[in-house]
Amino acid sequence: MVKYKVTLLKNECIMCGACAAICPDFFEMDEDNVSHLKNSIQNGDKWELIINTENEKAEIQEAVDACPVDIIKIEEEN
Ligand code: SF4
After folding, report:
1. I want to staple 63 with a disulfide (CB 3.0 to 4.6 A). Which of 19, 36, 48, 71 is the partner?
2. Residues 34-77: pLDDT tens digits?
3. Domains, the chain, ordered by start
4. HEC sequence for the chain
């Protein structure tokens, strides 16, 4: 099964709210009004979440496309 790693560079978020509006299953604005990737784990300056379905990838891709500062990434994970 293909797995994907979603990463969010939370420190670079400009708080526009687009990801949480478009993809609320995976993103929410935290108490500081910065994007939070739900159920993710912090790894240095990145917040990471492993997903393993194409449906999840498609849903998150909408947030990737909407983010004006391009800080949400999806990459294949071995
Ligand atoms: S779309 Fe990008 S800049 Fe806007 S809240 Fe989400 S992560 Fe932050």
Report:
1. 19
2. 999 999 999 999 999 999 999 999 999 999 999 999 999 999 99
3. 3-77 (3.30.70.20)
4. CCEEEEEECHHHCCCCCHHHHHCCCCEEECCCCCEEECCCEEECCEEEEEECCHHHHHHHHHHHHHCCCCCEEEEEEC
Minimum CA distance residue for ligand 1 atom 2: 67
Task: Indicate which atom in ligand 1 lies nearest the CA of residue 20.
Answer: 6
Taking alpha carbons only, the member of 17, 48, 49, 21 closest to residue 32 is 17
Q: Is the pTM of this model over 0.85?
A: yes
Ligand 1 atom nearest the C-alpha of 72 is 7
